[in-house]
Amino acid sequence: MDIKEIQALIKFVSTAGVDEVEINQKDFKLLIKKNPAQITTAQYTPVAVQAAPVAAAPVAAAIPAAPAAAAEPKADNLITIKSPMVGTFYRTPNPESPSFVNVGDDVKPGKVVCIIEAMKLFNEIESEISGKIVKVLVENATPVEYDQPLFLVEPA
How far is residue 10's CA from residue 4's CA, in Å, rounded to a whole number? Predict the structure, then answer.
């Protein structure tokens, strides 16, 4: 089972009416539970190692994105960079470093715009478009859902 399949299961548990999903296969065990506080956790334990769970990632319920302000330039032309996974959004590689991108910065395909921590893995999210960052839609160190808008970009 790859990370995309695990992410799909986490999304399913967070949106469906189920409270728990458990998968046991010959080389791993996956348990996803939703507790009363609407937080989904995932635990992955390799059977061959028989160790404590190697990952536990809290995933909060969907966070509504802030509505676009009416004064934004060419709001109908803006392109959204969305989260490819569930996790925690970080604008900087570490607390002492500057943000990957700020409002007004130019981005090109392949430029890292943020990091999303998912299951204790830090995933660099790269821009797939060229343009200028118009708005950052998510606060630093907050949970994000799959396909949640992160940035608005005015195409170049």
Answer: 10
Length of the chain measured in residues = 156
Contacts of 37 (CB under 8 A, 6+ apart): none
- Residue-wise pLDDT tens digits, 11-55: 777 777 677 777 777 777 777 776 654 444 455 555 444 444 444
CA distance 138 to 110: 20
Indicate the fold that domain 75-155 takes in CATH. OB fold (Dihydrolipoamide Acetyltransferase, E2P) (2.40.50)
Q: Per-residue pLDDT tens for 90-101?
A: 999 998 999 999
The answer to whether the beta carbons of residues 65 and 53 sit under 8 Å apart is: no
Q: How many CB atoms lie within 10 A of CB 142?
A: 11
* Structural domain spans, the chain: 12-62, 75-155
The single residue listed with the structure tokens 């969305």 is 82
Query: Within 10 A of 97 (CB to CB), how many other CB atoms are there?
Result: 9
